[in-house]
Structure formats: C-alpha cells, structure tokens
Automatic annotation (TrEMBL):
The gene is trpC. Belongs to the TrpC family. This is Indole-3-glycerol phosphate synthase. Its EC number is 4.1.1.48. It is an enzyme of class 4 (lyase). It comes from Oceanobacillus luteolus.
Length: 264
C-alpha cells in the first residue's frame, strides 16, 4: 500500500465523521482570484504553504502560528496561501485554514485529499477559494464531478498531475489551473524534471501551470519558469526559512510572459 493509498483510505473513514460535523462560519471578506493574482504579476507567483509536518519529512514546524506565518507570506508578496488541512498525516486542520482566510487578503488553497463533495463544502465554509483535486486519487468520473461541483460554487480548482497519463486525464476536463507535482506521492521522490517533461502538454495559453514541490533555490525556480510555469507551490523551504524576505526575493524571478523564452 502506498502512502497515497493510506491517506485516501483514511479520508474515506473521516467522511463518516464529516457528515455530522457542522460547517465553519463562512468568511464574507472578498479576495482576488488566483487567476487575477497571476495575471497582475510579471514575476513568478508564489503559493506559500503552511506545512507543519509531512509523511516524507515528519515534523517541519509543529509550533507554527498559521496566522503569523500567513501574514508574513502576504507581506512578502505571496500570490496565495496554501494550507494543508489534513490532520492525520500533516498535522493541519480546517481551523488553520479558517484562521488564515480571516487574517489575509489573498486567495487561499485548501491543500487536502478531496474525494467527496462534502469535503468541498467544508473547505469552502472554512474559507478556501481554491481546492485541490489530485488526479491520482480519483477516477475520471469523480474528477469531473468534483471539478464541476467546485467551479459551480465559485471556487477555483487546482488539478494536480504527476505523469503523462494523469496529464491527459486532467486535460480532458479543460481545467484553468494545472499543477505538476514534482513529488511522486507514492514513493516521495522529488524531481523537477517532472515539470520539464510534462509542461509541453499544456498548449492552451490561458491555462496556468503551477510547478509544485521541491523548490529550494533560485535555480530551481528558473528551471520550471523556462518551461512555462507561472507559479510555484512552496512548502518546506518557506517553513524552514530564517529569512523569509530573502527567500521570497530569491524565488520571485521575473517572467517574460508571452515571449518565446517563456513559451511551453
Ligand atoms: O510532502 C509530502 O511528504 C507529501 C506526501 C504525500 C502526499 C503529499 C505530500 N505533500 C503535499 C505537497 O504536494 C507539498 O506539500 C507541496 O507541493 C509543497 O512541497 P514542498 O515545497 O516540497 O514542501
């Protein structure tokens, strides 16, 4: 059984409890969409993640104050905040997401393993404006059902892939935002060549490509920027940074959007 199988099995168990859990109180404050954030920037957009722990690294920062961390991300020009809300494997929670949404004026991604519309209802009530759908965790029918359900609620959807087959399946639903995860969720191996290999499948210039995981230094960001990534999703490097100002500056590389150099 892979770690992804274990996580999904746990999600199925949690669904039973979720039915009886009241929705959190919706946050009325409007925030820009992620698409607007990317369109208004000429630099690499950063989705900055609140990540207390992970299956591959164990504890990263269990005592982090998500509100303070998110505010610091915002102050350094993050385009959006990602909050890992899974409790069992990542030590996160929907309460973290709720608190972050109230504290910042940015789009907020619910980074979880969504397999049912009920989770989307809870994510939205907690303040998510973007949800994640991991193609590897869903069959085609479920992927389409959840994508349509979320977009009909006005949420943006990040559709995540890791290989060619998943990319073809993702493209079939014509998503506006595709994330290529450089981390293999079955083996934990992280390789930026994944983004380089899959980026050219995205031929619609209006589709935003996010490169996820494994961003450590500027050269990493340059690599994925060269093949057309307009945004990166960064967790561990930001969580461990002693100087977030410097880390953001290093990663916010200028993009030559629309030029040949940037073309996929
Ligand atoms: O990070 C893990 O160990 C992990 C294991 C299994 C499923 C998902 C996992 N991480 C979720 C993510 O995709 C990352 O949190 C995110 O892309 C940021 O990655 P990084 O910058 O490498 O922390």
């Amino acid at each position: 059984m892979t770690i992804l199988d274990k996580i999904i099995a746990q999600k199925r168990k949690e669904l039973v409890e979720l039915i009886n859990l009241p929705l959190l109180k919706e946050v009325e404050k409007p925030v820009p969409t992620f698409k607007e954030q990317v369109a208004s920037s000429s630099n690499m957009s950063i989705i900055a993640e609140i990540k207390r722990a992970s299956p591959s690294k164990g504890a990263i920062d269990l005592t982090v104050d998500p509100i303070e961390q998110a505010k610091t991300y915002e102050g350094n020009g993050a385009a959006a905040i990602s909050v890992l809300t899974d409790e069992t494997f990542f030590n996160g929670s929907l309460n973290d997401l709720h608190a972050v949404r109230k504290a910042v004026d940015l789009p907020v991604l619910c980074k979880d393993f969504i397999i049912d519309t009920l989770q989307i209802d809870h994510a939205r009530a907690a303040g998510a404006t973007i949800i994640l759908l991991i193609v590897a965790a869903l069959d085609d029918e479920k992927l389409k059902e959840l994508y349509d359900y979320a977009t009909n609620l006005g949420l943006e959807v990040l559709v995540e892939v890791h290989d060619e087959v998943e990319m073809e399946r993702a493209l079939a639903i014509q998503p506006e935002i595709i994330g290529i995860n450089n981390r293999n969720l079955k083996t934990f191996e992280v390789n930026l060549a994944t983004t380089e290999k899959l980026a050219s499948y995205i031929t619609n210039p209006n589709t935003i490509l996010i490169s996820e995981s494994g961003m450590r230094v500027r050269q990493d960001v340059e690599r994925v920027g060269k093949v057309g990534a307009e945004a990166i999703l960064v967790g561990e490097t930001l969580m461990r940074s002693d100087d977030l100002n410097a880390t953001f500056s290093e990663m916010q590389i200028p993009l030559s959007k629309g030029s040949e150099q940037h073309a996929r």
